[in-house]
Model the fold of this input.
Amino acid sequence: MPEGHSVHRLARQFDDVFGGQVLAISSPQGRFSDAAKLIDGQKLLSSHAHGKQLFLGFENDLILRIHLGLYGAWSFGGDEHFSGASSIGAPRRVGEVEQGPDADQGSYDGPPEPVGQVRARLVSAHGWADLRGPSACEVITEEQALIARAKLGPDPLVGAAGEFNLAKGRGTAEDVAADALGAKKEFIARLAKKKTPIGTALMDQSLLAGVGNIYRAETLFRCQIDPFMPCNELSKPRAAALWDDIVSIMNDGVRDGKIITTRIEDRNAAGPLWPENAYYTYQRQHQQCRICDSGIALMEVAARKLYWCPGCQPKARKRATR
DNA sequence: CTAGCATGATCAC
DNA sequence: TGATCCTGCTAGC
Done:
């Protein structure tokens, strides 16, 4: 269930705690056993996120490709060296929601007995990572990884946390800026060619990689765009603003480890920030909009729940005649 | 305790 | 469009 921000945090986490180290890789559950043997005992050289997919590169040029799907999650544990290496707060678990570090600071005694269905387990000298419930977990060649990535649209988080390759090093600030600009242009160009509703398009990973149901709903609200508006009816400036907003809130997600899209002035100070005050429309159906008097609408579209505010995100025709 | 649901994607028809 | 896969949380009995 994680959207792109979580996967970018994971890419950074793997870089931090396992980068450059030899890993014992196994499949306690068994379903990943054969593939695990291909990379067992190899050194981790790169950790990269593109959209919702994670690519871990090993010294023998094989790539571990992970997609968490709806329920996948990684759990972590280790000694103080392991936890201390994490720049994202040494999470105990990263999946749909992120759980903070373990409260008990007991001594590290190696990975625990696998509990439940652990598809893959990575173990270094200092810690371990368990993967449960992924929709994809496979070992592929670099060529196959390139093919997988070619199927994905531009990632708003290109150049953000998680871009790492020990062999090539981090890109320069100029490289990252150029990549980000290219991604933006590509996004705008692709939108101009599509007639599908923008709300559907934002979920299409081949058009735009990393946005899921929450970011879709929230950015359309923030940009005051009707989710049913055809992509090619969105003006270029508005498409550019949409991209910029997605980049902004997803980078916040990478920083915070959770999705918070409300502006400070739009929160109810009485309640806790997360999750009660984190969203404008997501899971707020029938509640009053934070900006206008409308009730938040909910409709099932393409098997996913679409949330929007009919008042703040008016139909294109209505907007045009104003 | 259980059923139902969830920030996903693929495949069949 | 509907069925299916995978796991874990929670609302409701």
